[in-house]
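Submission sheet (multi-component)
Chains listed below:
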Amino acid sequence: DTGVSQDPRHKITKRGQNVTFRCDPISEHNRLYWYRQTLGQGPEFLTYFQNEAQLEKSRLLSDRFSAERPKGSFSTLEIQRTEQGDSAMYLCASSSRGPEGAFFGQGTRLTVV
Amino acid sequence: TQLLEQSPQFLSIQEGENLTVYCNSSSVFSSLQWYRQEPGEGPVLLVTVVTGGEVKKLKRLTFQFGDARKDSSLHITAAQPGDTGLYLCAVNRGTYKYIFGTGTRLKVLA
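Outcome: structure written.
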């Protein structure tokens, strides 16, 4: 297993377009997280899945954002009607039960022009 | 207000120097993680500390969890340019979501 994988690494889109990102977690991890990070800041929590169930969503996740994790495997994060303020690094992480910490993918850099 | 405050925010030092960065909170945590992040990449997990007063070493990096489990420090001995990056502390909150600190941006000059 090569760790958490995210696709694409970079995405440039025009304002108003929809975008979708994919995350493949470490295979034995049942917990999956999405974070957003802007320049100079730490990652901000967006949403959390345990298996296929979305158990927690941040207030940062507006109605234009939706995340899924069908069958408890890979996850997708979709942003509809993108705005310039959505420009950020979107990070996916996974973990198993226990306190050992989360393992992050390399992120998807979104630029909305 | 931030749950985790990290200091200093920025640090620029010469190769070979020692440094310590801090992660502070008024809350008590069951565990705390340290990550390093390089530009354009995701954070990489360095260590998890669980027990109050615990000290863990990772080569030239020494991590300590405060006795009261409210704070932590990261000490780097003989820093190298490869240590350059953003150092983040994080804790579990609620249903195992991780909340991150403000970060310390370290630059080690050759």
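Remark: Chain A touches chain B at residues 4, 6, 31, 33, 40-45, 48, 50, 55-56, 91, 93, 95, 99-107, 109 (CB under 8 Å).
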